[in-house]
Amino acid sequence: MKIDLHGYTIHKAWSHFNTKMxxxxxxxxxxxxxxxxxxxxMSEFPVWAHNHPSVKSYMQHIHNPGSFTIYFxxxxxxx
Length: 79
Fold this sequence. Notes:
single chain; alpha+beta; 4-stranded mixed β-sheet; 25% strand
């Protein structure tokens, strides 16, 4: 899964990120690439990822700092 936040305002990017991360985690997806670009969204991104309850960890790509890989917490099956 990949989401691209280019062209979004900060607030719309944050909202889109939260919605997509929650959906991906509920669908059992293990990781996701998020493209932020190298502007203001990239600066805010670590806080967003750290504060989202479904995100276990993230890492910034070395050769493309405007791109991150998100790893999700294991899907909990409630029956």
